[in-house]
Design brief:
Elements: H1 2-21, H2 29-38, E1 43-48, H3 53-60, H4 66-75, E2 77-82, E3 89-91, E4 94-96, H5 104-110, E5 120-124, E6 130-134, H6 140-160
Parallel strand pairs: 1-2
Antiparallel strand pairs: 1-5, 3-4, 5-6
Helix pairs in contact: 4-6
């Protein structure tokens, strides 16, 4: 009986520990920008809404994929953001808010030709310049390819810069 309980205890702690390690780390805009002061990393922003079934699909499938989680946790700051949020966002001295149903930060970062499609995934460089805007559903395989290509391009660019 004692061996059974010991096995169960060790096994359950192992499962809990492995689940914590496989969790996607997500940040608010403020947290990501503060972290960039310590360690410069690109930011991936996932703009979604509560009513968007494709957004829900990405949350459920794409962002639960182990490879996607590993890439995002290691190389990026990840911000999932409801584009219809009423939250005020303060970045440095600038305040962003929702005045018209769509949050200003979504309008600034996810808009293409004055239109926002959901879901939208935006990659900001470590210097906070928009490098990528993808306005469609992305499978785990698709976003893994995009992130891997992005990382490889940044590493290659760093190697080419004079020291």
């Amino acid at each position: 009986m004692k061996k059974t309980l010991l096995f169960f205890f060790i096994f359950s702690n192992g499962i809990l520990f492995s689940q914590k390690n496989n969790a996607l780390k997500s940040y608010s805009f403020e947290e990501a920008y503060n972290l960039q002061e310590k360690e410069k990393k690109p930011i991936v922003i996932f703009f979604h809404t509560k009513w968007c079934k494709y957004c829900f699909g990405m949350k459920k499938k794409t962002f639960s994929d182990k490879k996607v989680i590993d890439l995002l946790n290691k190389y990026f700051y990840f911000i999932p953001f409801d584009a219809e949020s009423k939250d005020l966002i303060k970045i440095k001295d600038k305040i962003f808010k929702n005045e018209s149903g769509t949050h200003q930060i979504a309008q600034v970062l996810a808009s293409k030709n004055n239109t926002i499609s959901y879901p939208s995934t935006v990659i900001l460089s470590a210097n906070n310049i928009i490098d990528e805007q993808i306005d469609s559903f992305l499978s785990a395989e698709e976003i893994s390819k995009i992130l891997t290509k992005y990382i490889a391009k940044k590493i290659q660019t760093k190697r080419m810069l004079p020291k």
